[in-house]
Amino acid sequence: MDAAAIDEALVRALLHEQHPDLAGLALREVAGGWDNRMWRLGEELAVRLPRTPRAPSLLRTEQRWLPCLAPGLPLPVPVPVRAGEPSARFPKPWTVARWVDGEPADHTPISSPKAAGTLAGFLRALHRAAPGEAPANPDRGVPLATLRPDFEWFPVVASTDVAAGVRRTWEQAVAADAWQGAPVWIHGDLHPANVVVTGGTLSGVIDFGEMCAGDPATDLAAAWLLLPAGTAARFFDAYASADDATIQRARGWAVLRALGLIGIGQNWEQGLPGGKQTWGPAGWAALERILAFS
């Protein structure tokens, strides 16, 4: 189904068809993520319909695992409460989840230093041993050396004065000792568009479709991707279980994500598909924080 054909009438019809007790609630479209379109349903719920080829599997991951993890997490998360199944009306799975209040951090960046402790507490709670059947992800939680050494986004800064620092940080991260512990649960995609902010601080974490088991350094990159300048050390002190090698790897993951944000921002500037206006500034700000850290 063409993404343009996903509209309020379709969402209302799907609710009538599969969850009629919710169909009378107010419905309005809100800004969705990369993979899904989203409607707020009443005051407490959201409906998410996939719009990319990979989105159905991400929704299934959230439906299977997030309800298991959410009770132990200290911040609101979009726990799925109903599953929508493929039908003649819409051929893909969809979901009804808890609404998480706040402004996305790519629109309203975190400004409070206290967010360092909030983020650390959230990740301490999330980063617990994952069961053997937890999903794996070839692009998250894995050794950085298994990723392309000339990763696809490096050209976005290759001609700038930060290129040497970016390359050096990446190479140090790849050379750092690998994660030796058991795989832990990770969010896998912590960047400014996937957290929400209230009153200058972190107030919720969303979009768990990439959640998987692996190296926590992938998530610890959020120290630079999300937090204000000068607070990364405070974050790692509060997290309290990241050694020097893990912090080095986290900086590598942060570089990778920051370059991705910058590249998507440049796509918007050039009018290319998939561009996001707010992602470029968020990526440049993160890169500045990464390179300033010592």
Note down, in words, how this protein is organized.
This protein is of the alpha+beta class and 294 residues long. The chain folds into two domains: 3-99, Phosphorylase Kinase, domain 1; 104-292, Aminoglycoside 3'-phosphotransferase, Chain: A, domain 2, CATH 3.90.1200.10. Helices cover 36% and strands 15% of the residues. The protein contains nine helices and ten strands. It has helices at 8-18, 55-69, 115-126, 163-175, 217-220, 222-225, 232-239, 244-269, 279-292; strands spanning 27-30, 36-41, 45-50, 80-84, 94-98, 103-104, 184-186, 195-198, 201-205, 212-214. The strands form three sheets. It has a five-stranded antiparallel beta sheet, sandwiched between helices. Strands 6-8-9 form a three-stranded antiparallel beta sheet. Helix 3 (115-126) runs parallel beside helix 7, helix 4 crosses helix 8 (244-269) and helix 8 (244-269) packs antiparallel against helix 9 (279-292). It starts with 7 loop residues before the first helix and ends with a helix. The mean pLDDT is 94.
Notable features of this structure?
294 residues; Aminoglycoside 3'-phosphotransferase, Chain: A, domain 2; Phosphorylase Kinase, domain 1; three-stranded antiparallel beta sheet; 2 domains; five-stranded antiparallel beta sheet; alpha+beta; single chain
Structural class: alpha+beta
Which sequence of strands runs across the widest sheet? 1-2-3-5-4
Helix count from the secondary structure assignment: 9
Distance between the termini: 49 Å
CATH superfamily label of the largest domain: Aminoglycoside phosphotransferase (APH), C-terminal lobe
Estimate the helix proportion, in percent.
Answer: 25-40%
The helix/strand order is HEEEHEEEHHEEEEHHHHH
CATH class of the largest domain: Alpha Beta
CATH topology of the largest domain: Aminoglycoside 3'-phosphotransferase, Chain: A, domain 2
Instruction: Kindly estimate the percentage of residues that lie in beta strands according to DSSP.
Output: 5-15%
In total, the number of domains comes to 2
Q: Which radius of gyration do the C-alpha atoms yield?
A: 19 Å
User: What would you call the shape?
Assistant: globular
Largest sheet: 5 strands, antiparallel
Number of DSSP strand runs: 10
Mean pLDDT value:
94
By CATH, the architecture of the largest domain is named Alpha-Beta Complex
Spans with pLDDT under 50 lasting ≥5 residues?
Answer: none
